From TrEMBL:
Identification of the protein by name: Glutathione hydrolase proenzyme
Catalysed reaction equations from the record: an S-substituted glutathione + H2O = an S-substituted L-cysteinylglycine + L-glutamate; an N-terminal (5-L-glutamyl)-[peptide] + an alpha-amino acid = 5-L-glutamyl amino acid + an N-terminal L-alpha-aminoacyl-[peptide]; glutathione + H2O = L-cysteinylglycine + L-glutamate
Gene from which the chain derives: ggt
Molecular function in Gene Ontology: glutathione hydrolase activity; leukotriene C4 gamma-glutamyl transferase activity
UniProt binding sites for L-glutamate: R115, T412, L413, N414, D436, S465, S466, G488
Species this chain originates from: Fluviispira multicolorata
Length: 585
């Protein structure tokens, strides 16, 4: 039977309306479809919670705490202590970091800033030699390279205020691992071998992390950390004061003094981790939470996202030359602000409001040329380059519990195994976070960052960081994703690539962790990329004026997600030791 034309028109209109309604709904920030089939990489799934860290034993410990009824903060603190044993290159109690917490019932987010501080005796020029050059060895491998550690204060504060379990309970697994030994994995064996020179400059590190004949442990052998076990037990029994005022503090300070370091008992006694409000921004209908100065992470991430919001990515193919160009140009402008405008808010005024405003982002958007790279010397007139050493190490982990609480935590010793020094009798590796300060205005640090006077060394100041633990909320203000990574100055852009890929291209979190990365940071004026970007695309970028440089795989995104069916997903970066996202059933 022939249909009446009028009816056909109405029917077509209804169908069109439905298609529009559904597709519009599909891209709204509250019900968010992520492509999950036909992908090479897939996240882990679970029903009751998820932990993604860089090391499987630690993730399992976190998952077990969740299974036993602990919340995300309980699990996060347990993972933090466990990684200090199982991932000694970056997990730590001798360093510092930032924890971002989402409390689902209260719909509230908090940052715990447990970044290290410069000791009281620190001075602006303490790392300059007689000729006024930065003494790289002194800042990265001496006892003075260490800032006053914040990890124990930070983890314990988080547990006390937002956890539900006793400290002893969450520390028990870490104590047992340190005392009874861990089976050395292939990754740990390689990492100790690679860091042999760094660690063997110190007798105590040599004794603990190498065999009697000074050879590295082979995979399958057992690494015991008895001093660390005693230290952790002391903290579990006596709390934060054991580390900052008790016998542990005394041992640290004695060792520092023996090696002509400046950190004193007063430095430890006066250390406090502090609670702060997160940096908050919006991106295409989502809310982005991250950490404020003294980390540059949140401000820089949101500044870049605000610039990108001016583009219509539906018209820009994923990973096309145009995509790489736009994102990397936005990175360059934001890193200019990062390097020149930010420092510890206890010491300097940060123009945060301006930097994360949509208006400012629009001004930058108008400067970006779609056809040509803007050379860094135009964005910033002066800048000195030092060869960038991206070998440092940090680690990130993310946790989501069945109540919808999330924790996004990044902490670090800065380099692999920090300054390489283990404080005698404690098993604690010290950090070399002082290198995150501007040792000299205009000179680059280990991550090639050329930073300004706002980040100069002052007693009790915290060095500017790039750590970017991030949580994403949907339009109903529910936390749907927590992510973050190590990677020095390249931390911020890893979180960025996860967030934009998730929102603008609806890729799954495991795929996003696996795509070859790229990065710009103003200085050096280079487009850094991991192997895997098409040759033709790179040729287009070169024609646009990008000086491209292939770099080794870097970073390690650790991401958890709560999807629209309230299932939990986790992804642990394939660049790390293996699949370390562990779900709870
Ligand atoms: O806080 C920072 O930005 C640096 N200390 C992080 C160091 C790092 O991620 C090294 N990892 N590759």
């Amino acid at each position: 039977m022939k249909k009446e034309p009028r009816k056909l028109v109405i029917k077509t209109k209804i169908i069109l309306f439905l298609i529009l309604f559904i597709s519009n709904k599909a891209i709204s920030a509250s019900s968010f479809p992520i492509e999950e089939s036909f992908q090479i990489f897939h996240p882990e799934y679970s029903e009751q919670g998820m932990v993604a860290s860089q090391e499987k034993t630690a993730s399992e410990i976190g998952a077990k705490i969740l299974k036993q009824g602990g919340n995300a903060v309980d699990a996060a603190v347990a993972v933090g202590y466990a990684l200090a044993v199982t991932l000694p290159k970056a997990g730590n109690i001798g360093g510092g970091g930032f924890m971002l917490v989402w409390l689902n019932k209260e719909k509230k987010s908090i940052v715990i800033n447990y970044r290290e501080k410069a000791p009281f005796a620190a001075t602006k020029d303490m790392f300059l030699d007689k000729k006024g050059r930065v003494n790289v060895d002194e800042i990265t491998t001496s006892y003075n390279g260490a800032g006053v550690p914040g990890t124990v204060y930070g983890l314990n504060l988080a547990l006390k205020k937002y956890g539900t379990l006793p400290l002893k309970k969450v520390m028990e697994p870490a104590i047992n691992l340190a005392r009874n030994g861990i089976t050395v994995t292939h990754a740990l064996s390689i990492s100790l071998t690679e860091s042999m020179k760094h660690l063997q400059k110190n007798e105590e590190s040599t004794r603990i992390f190498f065999k009697k004949n000074k050879e590295p442990y082979n995979p399958g052998e057992t690494l015991y950390q008895k001093d660390l076990a005693n230290t952790l037990e002391e903290i579990a029994n006596k709390g934060t004061d054991a580390f900052y005022r008790g016998s542990i503090a005394k041992k640290i300070v004695e060792d520092v003094k023996t090696h002509k370091g400046i950190m004193t008992l007063k430095d430890l006694q006066d250390y406090k981790a502090i609670e702060m409000s997160p940096i908050e921004g919006t991106y295409n209908g989502f809310t982005v939470l991250s950490v404020p100065p003294p980390s540059s992470g949140g401000v820089t991430l949101i500044e870049i996202l605000n610039i990108l919001e001016n583009y219509d990515f539906k018209k820009i193919p994923f990973r096309s030359a145009e995509y790489f160009h736009i994102l990397s140009e936005a990175m360059n402008f934001a890193y200019y602000d990062r390097n020149n405008s930010l420092g510890d808010p206890d010491f300097v005024k940060n123009p945060i409001e301006k930097l994360i405003s949509k208006k400012y982002a629009k001004e930058i958007f108008q400067k970006i040329d779609l056809k040509n790279h803007i050379p860094s010397e135009i964005v910033q007139k002066e800048g000195i380059r030092r060869e960038s050493n991206q070998d440092g190490n940090t680690t990130h982990y993310s946790v989501v519990d069945k109540f919808g609480n999330m924790v996004s935590n990044t902490y670090t010793l800065n380099y692999y195994y920090g300054n390489g020094k283990t404080a005698k009798g404690t098993g604690i590796l010290l950090n070399n976070e002082m290198d995150d300060f501007t040792a000299k205005v205009g000179a680059a640090n280990s991550f090639g960052l050329v930073q300004g006077a706002k980040n100069s060394i002052e007693p009790q100041k915290r060095p500017l960081s790039s750590m970017t633990p991030t949580i994403l909320l949907n339009s109903k203000k529910e936390a749907i994703l927590a992510t973050g990574a190590p990677g020095g100055s390249r931390i911020i852009t890893q979180s960025l690539l996860m967030i934009t890929g998730f929102i603008d291209y609806q890729k799954n979190i495991a795929s996003l962790a696996s795509y070859p990365r790229f990065h710009r940071q103003l200085w050096p004026d280079k487009f850094y990329y991991e192997d895997g970007i098409a040759y033709e695309t790179l040729e287009v970028l070169k024609k646009m004026g990008h000086d491209i440089e292939r770099v080794n795989p870097y970073g390690s995104l650790q991401t958890v997600q709560k999807n629209i069916e309230n299932r939990f997903l986790g992804s642990s970066d394939p660049r790390s030791e293996g699949d370390a996202a562990v779900g709870v059933w």
